[in-house]
Fold this sequence. Notes:
mainly alpha
Amino acid sequence: MLYFRYWSRGFVLFLGFTAGFAVIAALVALNKVAFFDEYIINVVQSAESPALTSLAKSLSLVGSSRQAIGISLLAMLLLFFLLKHRLELALFLCVGLGSQLLNTMMKLWFHRERPNLHRIIEEVGYSFPSGHSMAAFSLYGAIAYLVWRHLHREFARILLVLFTVLITGGIGWSRIYLGVHYPSDVIGGYAASGAWLMLCITIFEAYRVSQGHRGNKPVPSA
Length: 222
């Protein structure tokens, strides 16, 4: 019963994210999101100021591949050497590497050019889905999940979720503000990465339950 509960709950979320991405991808492929993208870009960039530009560049840097690799290496070292959580390390690696591979493949598949309305910085490569958004959702989502499992205070969990939402949302906003991604790129990136993250977590939880463990304690039989 526990196995089924973990599998069904996670799989439903996986299907939800997958369906969301499928809808967004179809609209992008059919060029049905131009009005939405241009409207959101105009709203976001209409607030342009030196302070916001500095913030956007900082958030974009936090979501860059170099920073993501650095944070990932630190998290992996902590999981492997300090916490001895080898199975959680495997989950973390699967989420991060899989998300990067999916992003590369989908960008090559869709071949969407980046917006050219008003670029504050220059970027190369294709636009859909946003690599920064996918990396942020995967990295901070995986970290939040792994930390959540070891938090017992409700207030601490709320703070963790708020931080994760703010940093992930902020990175997505920064890419729109800086003019290097369409809003649909960012939303598509969140949906794709969310689907992959939930699939990995579902398999991870199902495996742990099937082995009779939950965290560091045995799972009581259902």
